[in-house]
Amino acid sequence: QVQLVESGGGLVQPGGSRRLSCAATGSIFSINAMVWFRQAPGKEREFVAAISWSADNTYYADAVKRRFTISRDSAKNTMYQQMNSLKPEDTAVYYCNAKLRIRSWGPEYNYWGQGTQVTVSS
């Protein structure tokens, strides 16, 4: 059973920083990529950032470029997101997503974390 466990959410003042983590646990053969999404109240879930596991390529939404940094620790099957210069419009539930294989011969599966709330407010 694969689980994605997020942590690091909370209340932060505008201009502040926060670091989110997402750990993938369970029977995992390989991870292809991990992605951060977010969903603000009354809005659709949107892409934030992604990282490929083998090549360490990173991708960002325009709204977070130069403020957010995605990284990973392959040994721990964990993804991070360092969020700097936070704005009230960054307030959302942040979800991690993993595209991984549980067997060498099997298909790629899509897993989701439970979400962690980030609130940017003074």
List keywords for this structure.
122 residues, mainly beta, 4-stranded antiparallel beta sheet, 7-stranded mixed beta sheet
Report on this model:
With 122 residues, the protein is mostly beta strands. 0% of the residues lie in helices and 55% in strands. The chain has no helices and eleven strands. It has strands at residues 3-7, 10-12, 18-25, 30-39, 46-52, 58-60, 68-73, 78-83, 92-101, 109-112, 116-120. Strand 7 (68-73) and strand 8 form a beta hairpin.
Average predicted local confidence, pLDDT? 96
Strand content: over 45%
Give the count of helical stretches: 0
State the total count of DSSP E strands.
11
Largest sheet: 7 strands, mixed
Helicity range? under 10%
| Shape, per Cα inertia axes | elongated
Derived from helix and strand composition plus strand pairing, the structural class reads mainly beta
Radius of gyration: 14 Å
Q: Segments where pLDDT lies below 50 for 5+ residues?
A: none
- The ordered string of helix (H) and strand (E) elements is EEEEEEEEEEE
Distance separating the two termini: 40 Å
